[in-house]
Amino acid sequence: MKPIDLRSDTVTLPTRAMRDVMANAELGDDVYGEDPSVNRLQEHAAALMGKEAAVFVASGTLANQASIRSHTHHGDVVLAGEGAHILRYESGAPAALSGVQVKTLGEGGFFDARDVALGVHPKDAHYAPTTLVALENTHNFAGGRVFPLEPIQAIAEAARDRGLALHLDGARIMNAVVASGISASVWAAPFDTVAFCLSKGLGAPVGSLVAGSTEQIERIRRIRKMWGGGMRQAGVLAAAGLYALEHHVDRLAEDHLHARSFAEGLETLDVDVERTPETNMVMFRFDDTQGFVRETRLRDLLINPTGPGRFRVVTHLGVRSEDVDDALGRIREALEELRG
Ligand code: TLP
């Protein structure tokens, strides 16, 4: 049986064409700023996000955490939505690497300008200074939902009025672009820094970027070096990233369609799907967490729980429509076994 891996869009393998551009990439030492492929990718990313500059980093985690470090001082408070990746899945980095506390706002990953206004600490020696708002789009823990533009613009205004900086964890911002038809630069405009990933739905093997002002990106470049993230002949990876941005954005629509048919298929199997997928994730519930994992793995189907009784399916470059049908067939069998 062919294994079907729906744990994440991070599991994609580079295509033949992508490997070819990697093999032929022009290289140099990026710590000296001399890798032409990295430079090309960074210029492309900055233009795409409508910012002055961009820096190539190893991961989404590094992109977020170096950005947080660049905006804050030890002891500050960062405001973020519930289930934010920076808080939930980055190994405690805001506290460990920047010495900041993350305070969550709103519900289910989403919040509004009023939450920001109420969340900011007063300027009083009893309170830690609030200096940054970090927003995630699409929101992973919420199931790949798009954080709508209007509330973001209002949040940005509320944050600016209070002197706060704004960071976007846009690991999957291109999924939001394809789902909404709104360009990346419009999504990025309210933010001082925007992190986005090449190694998720876009299918590159490694790499993320942060875009922002020249000054902010220089600060992040220094933090990247300090944290051991200077990458020398990184053009091998940058070439894959550039290829992904040029060839794999429009096809995200296919992943979104696959997620929707997956959700419909699950419903016909009487599985409790949280909501109609907006992008490439399907969140669903099944009480017997261990049983579901066991029975699907026995059928070469990989699906991760996000917590007790809650699962996430992620569609990606390596999932074709036959795989969706095939995976649903395997789930039907697993459920027959578990429901008896
Ligand atoms: N998310 C991974 C896991 O860490 C959960 C996944 O499989 O979805 N921001 C967001 C919104 C992300 O979803 C991720 C990765 C990151 C940042 C971190 O990216 P990497 O894994 O490159 O450090």
Radius of gyration: 20 Å
What is the strand tally?
A: 13
Kindly report the CATH topology of the largest domain. Aspartate Aminotransferase, domain 2
Main sheet?
7 strands, mixed
Order of helices and strands: EHHEHEHHEHEHEHHEEHHHEEHEEEH
How would you describe this protein?
This protein has 340 residues and is α/β, with parallel strands linked by helices. The protein has two domains: 15-247, Type I PLP-dependent aspartate aminotransferase-like (Major domain) (Aspartate Aminotransferase, domain 2), CATH 3.40.640; 251-339, Aspartate Aminotransferase, domain 1. It has helices at 16-23, 36-49, 60-71, 85-88, 93-98, 113-119, 149-161, 173-180, 184-188, 214-226, 235-247, 252-268, 289-297, 321-339; strands spanning 4-5, 53-57, 77-81, 101-105, 130-136, 165-169, 193-197, 208-212, 272-273, 281-285, 301-302, 304-307, 310-314. The strands form three sheets. It has a seven-stranded mixed sheet, with helices on both faces. Helix 7 (149-161) links the parallel strand 5 (130-136) and strand 6 (165-169). Helix 3 (60-71) packs across helix 10 (214-226). The longest helix is centred in the last third of the chain and has 19 residues, at 321-339. The radius of gyration is 20 Å and the shape is globular. The protein starts with a strand and ends with a helix. The model has no long low-confidence stretch (mean pLDDT 98). Ligand TLP is lined by residues 8, 10, 59-61, 64, 85, 89, 136, 140, 169, 171, 197, 199, 208.
